[in-house]
UniProtKB/TrEMBL annotation:
Membership in a protein family: Belongs to the 5-formyltetrahydrofolate cyclo-ligase family.
Enzyme class: ligase
InterPro entries according to UniProt: FTHF_cligase, FTHF_cligase-like_sf, NagB/RpiA_transferase-like
Binding site residues for ATP: 5-9, 134-142
GO biological process: folic acid-containing compound biosynthetic process; tetrahydrofolate interconversion
Pfam families from the UniProt entry: 5-FTHF_cyc-lig
Keyword Plastid annotated: no
Source species of the chain: Flavobacterium xanthum
Protein name: 5-formyltetrahydrofolate cyclo-ligase
Length: 189
């Protein structure tokens, strides 16, 4: 059965809100462990999102530990809600993180990195389908950002839940994922 993006947003926001703190932590750790099976670790520049804990997003702290343990360059973003643009900054020991008005943890400033340098992007989402299309919060930040990346940038969705059969209303401009990782499996598109 096909569902529209709007229906799916409601469904998955509710499913996430019903997760306990412990479930979020356990499933986030399982997602991080599954990432180790994907052939991305020879890459250097990894873009990661810092989770909005109020939305019970995948806690990327475990992935951050993996990346720093493997000595990767970690890039985080700051969103401009008037232009819908994201600027990307190298995460260093000196990076100051501050929550914006939408509770998104962001770097205050730092060393800016162009989108074209990024090798791997971990993409936040509410749900995805078996073709690698995702449903986000609908603001279009990631669609715009992913379109600015190199064509061979690896895009990896992170989800607590398994794939939907098909998402209705996918646009030409929607950029598909290469992988999506859940606590139980890795989808490859």
């Amino acid at each position: 059965m096909q569902s529209t993006k709007k229906e799916l947003r409601i469904k998955y926001k509710n499913l996430r809100q019903n997760l306990s703190e412990d479930e979020v932590e356990e499933m986030s750790l399982a997602v991080a462990n599954k990432l180790l099976t994907i052939p991305i670790w020879e890459k250097n520049y990894f873009h990661i999102f810092l989770p909005i804990s109020e939305h019970k997003e995948v806690n990327t702290e475990f992935i951050l530990h993996l990346l720093s343990g493997k000595d990767k360059d970690i890039i985080i973003s700051k969103s401009d809600f008037t232009t819908r643009n994201m600027s990307h900054f190298l995460l260093t020991d000196n990076t100051k993180i501050k929550k914006n008005e939408y509770n998104i943890p962001e770097p205050v400033d730092g060393i800016e990195i162009p989108s074209t340098k990024i090798d791997v992007v971990f993409v936040p989402l509410l749900t995805f389908d078996k073709k690698g299309h995702r449903v986000g919060y609908g603001k279009g930040f990631y669609d715009k950002f992913l379109s600015e990346c190199k064509p061979d940038t690896i895009k990896i969705g992170l989800s607590f839940f398994e794939a939907e059969e098909l998402i209705e209303g996918i646009f030409e401009g929607d950029i598909a994922l290469n992988y999506c990782v859940t606590p139980d499996r890795v989808y490859s598109f």
